[in-house]
Amino acid sequence: MAEKTERSGNEEEFVSKLWNHLAAISNYELDIQYPVEIEKEEGVGFKRDMVPYPQKNIERRHYGAIVEAFTQAIEKEEDKEKQQELAWLVGNHMKRDLSNWNIDAMSDSKVLDDLSRYTHGKVQLDTSDRGLISDGDLLSSRNPTTVKKSRKKR
User: Which of 84, 107, 85, 82 is nearest to 94 (CA)?
Assistant: First the structure.
């Protein structure tokens, strides 16, 4: 027979909580002798309503809802200098998103064409004086998604 040990107040509370959770999960239908007094809560153990998740119809899923919102904001911007600066920031973000989605499709010309199309031609970026983030900088800043396996030496 197992000996009962002294428990601190926090530990007793924790153990009691665990047994209460077990009882609630089982919908209070377990036929066992609980080592603590079970406090039956109303509504616990029953199926709850699903939490509503905001559903958006994102046209450009590979760029995401944020880019979609920003391109709409850029399109409405009156100050041309501010519009160009925002467009460069969004263009760099689009290139990062594109590299996460499909690294083979990542190119400055695609991003610039997409940005122009999404703003209905109101934003045309000129890469002769400034460019998007370089592919090398972009790839070096990415977190590796795969874990390299170490080889055993023979």
Answer: 107
